[in-house]
Amino acid sequence: MRRYRTVVALDSRKRLYLPVPFDPDTAWGPKPRHHVKARMGPLTMRGALQDFDGGWGLRLNPKSHAACELRAGDEVQVEVWPEGPQVDDLAPDITAALVADDAAQAAFQGLATFYRKAWLTWIDGTKRRPEERARRIAVMVEALLAGKKERPR
Fold first, then answer.
1. Which class for 57: exposed (0-12), middle (13-18), buried (19 or more C-beta within 10 A)?
2. How far is C-alpha 24 from the geometric centre of its chain's CA atoms?
3. Domains of the chain (ranges, CATH numbers)
4. Average pLDDT over the chain, rounded to whole?
């Protein structure tokens, strides 16, 4: 988790966002997208970090409660952390399969939490059948390398 103070900003397209004063690739490892949760006082939000005019930021959805209460120039205390299961927190067999292939690992880390949890639930549904578990892990790696987000039905 990272804590910092920032000033709510508007980008060149007049979108409200929270600047992030650190490089998430350095802080949490390189990923195609950094899905995060953030807290500002009692308000919690989710989203993906984006490039805003050359720096990282978290867009405030115009319809969100946070955006309704915040204006450009407001100073806020922010806590930001990666959302969902991270590769380091997975079962050893899944971690080993993802670490063995950088592209598969990057694809998994770039998925939204919904997709990551769906893959893990599907794999964990085979705890009593180790051969099926290994097969499902291999299917996940192949699908991620093929650019697929969802597990087979």
1. buried
2. 11
3. 2-82 (2.40.30.100), 87-145 (no CATH)
4. 90
